Amino acid sequence: MPANWTIDGVQEALASKQISAREVAADYYKRIEARNPELNAYLTLSQDRAFAQADRVDALVAAGKPLPPLAGVPIAIKDVISTRGVRTTCGSKILENYVPPYDATAVQRLEAAGAVILGKTNCDEFAMGSSNENSAYGPVRNPEAPDRVPGGSSGGSAAAVAAGLAVASLGTDTGGSIRQPGSFCGIPAMMPSYGRVSRYGLIAFASSLDRIGPFATNVRDVAAVLQVIAGRDVNDSTSTTAPVPDYRAEAQKPVKGLRIGIPKEYFGAGMDPDVRKKVEAGIEMFRKLGCELREIRMPHTDYAIAAYYIIATAEASSNLARYDGVRYGLRVEGDSLLSMYRKTRGAGFGAEVKRRIVLGTYVLSAGYYDAYYLKGQKVRSLIAQDFRDAFTKVDAMVTPTSPVPAFKLGERTNDPLQMYLADIYTVTGSLAGVPGISVPCGKICGKLAVGLQIFGPPFGEGRVLQLAQAFEQAGGAAL
Amino acid sequence: MKISREDVLRVADLAYLDLSESELETYRNQIDEILEYIGKLNELDTTNVEPMAQVLADDQTADATLREDVVVPCQVAPEILKQAPDPEPPYFRVPKVIER
After folding, report:
1. A78 catalytic, yes or no?
2. Does the pLDDT of residue A470 top 80, yes or no?
3. Out of A240, A300, A349, whose CB is closest to B59?
């Protein structure tokens, strides 16, 4: 068995009958059993569902029928994405025993494409966090450096793939929650354009920002997973009818002559000098690949964190109103309906979620709406305009994913503002709605992974994957 | 100081959120610091800037996303009620809200 399969590897091994889908799934559960007690990447395993699906794939092989694009590929799903009959906690005590009655569209599409859903991965509670330390079920450890965080909020999805406990996984990204853990764990991780992947069944944090996207061990596999989950869904009116191109074909196109913008504002103070060195070497690699580098300005970058934490918390305070102890999840009895609501929410939510509900309710409340929420939305317009202006001059943008590599567990938990500021390079693209990927760009001292981020224009996933794959093939991960 | 103890209490009340004394003080301090930071947005003149609430693709004008209102059978009620902390099929039961 290889240390970790690629999607092509699984497909070839199945088609040539070297191995069955059931054996592949069983192998992954063995790996999970060995490694998960230390990493805490998975919260719930779905063996029954996985083996039933593997058997369906094996029946197709036995009957000599054509195999769907992800046949037998073991995939992990972040625990904020609904899975019918499989517990979905959102990393929260308030949903400890919640079992969704339906599948998210992305999950349903993965299974229709033959994927084997291994289980649900740990994450910051309701995807609120940048280190996975806000999970009610304990932190995830970084597989490469177990005293450090895997990043967040999709830390379990990133760690599972990096440790070879899944071939690919789904995460969600609201302000960097796919790209930053991808960077910390040293694997490619993609946030598609807003509207590219249906959010139906994604348990909402901030609806105007939330996106589902893939992690994998290589860019070609990221493209293959995106291919399956992308596209219009009538159950999400914000999903677009724009055609879905062949992403694996797009990823193979030559990059020579593409214009890459390097925004000066992403290389300012607060950046770890070793991260800077790696990312500058990464940019040099694009020059060697024949890309044309252009310095560009993104003048409102410095305001993105402030605008983001107004908008995201405001939307969260509204979305999380549904956890009231009536229809599902935890209930703590009280002597009246209101006291039941208050006790349930007070006991069921963790510290970061409560902090964001308070902040979000405050910025929306009478007397503060204009000063904070409206102001935040106006600044969001300015940030989106920065991106529109940039994409009239360049085909893509290259930046660091995070100003720092994976930090130590517990190092930042007492200072929420410092934790928020670590999202500085990712939240801009979230606010603007554009696609972005983080690809491995070397390791500091051979251990701490650095991520290079590529932004493309709206629905320019093909372009982003094309540059990411060229970078990967040129040896970007070994810089 | 941007936010007072009374503000936090008022907001927690709006959000139906019980906070302990120590949470109240911790959040007040932390949110104060965050609001102080957010204040930097006032450096920007946004008088003539339209607020942006949502990212929409070209095909997603308000009308284009309206679908036919079709009735489809949905037989998940028993499954959904099973998730409730206090079900009384076909109802969700809550603490008494009206005094006789």
Report:
1. yes
2. yes
3. A240
Q: How confident is the model at residue B100 (pLDDT cuts 50, 70, 90)?
A: low
Q: Is A20 a catalytic residue?
A: no
Closest partner CB to B11 (pick from A306, A342, A358): A358
Rounded Cα distance between A169 and A156, Å, is 9
3-state class (DSSP) for residue A448? strand
Average pLDDT value over all residues in chain A: 97
Query: Which helix or strand (DSSP H or E) is residue A54 part of?
Result: helix A47-62
**CA-based end-to-end distance of chain B:** 46
pLDDT of A263 > 80? The answer is yes
Q: Which two tokens stand for residue A422?
A: 């670590």
Cβ contacts of B35 on chain A, cutoff 8 Å: 359, 362, 372
Per-residue tokens: A107: 């999950």
A327 is written with which tokens? 């229809």
How near does any CA of chain B get to the CA of A141, in Å? 26
B100 touches chain A (CB under 8 A): no
The neighbouring-strand residues paired with A440 are A451
Cα–Cα distance, A158 to B41 (Å, whole number): 33
Sequence-distant (≥ 6) Cβ neighbours of residue A13 within 8 angstroms: A5, A19, A24
- Interatomic CA distance for residues A204 and B83, integer angstroms: 19
Nearest-5° angle of CA A426, CA A427, CA A430?
100
Half-sphere exposure (Cβ direction) of A98: Cα atoms closer than 13 Å: 27
Number of H helices, E strands in chain A: 16, 11
In this prediction, residues A140-150 reach a mean pLDDT of 97
- DSSP character string of A78-105: ETTB-BTTB---TT-GGGTT---SS--H
Residue with tokens 């003539």: B48
* Claim: this prediction has a pTM higher than 0.95: yes
Tell me the ipTM for this assembly: 0.94
Instruction: Count Cα atoms within 13 angstroms, Cβ side, for A10.
Output: 32
Q: Given the DSSP bridges, would you call strands A168-173 and A211-216 parallel, antiparallel or unpaired? A: antiparallel
Query: Quick count: other Cβ atoms within 10 Å of Cβ B63?
Result: 6
- Beta pairing, strands A42-45 & A74-78: unpaired
Output the pLDDT for position B72. Answer: 86
Q: Taking CB atoms and an 8 Å cutoff, what residues of chain A touch B16?
A: 321, 324, 338, 341-342, 345
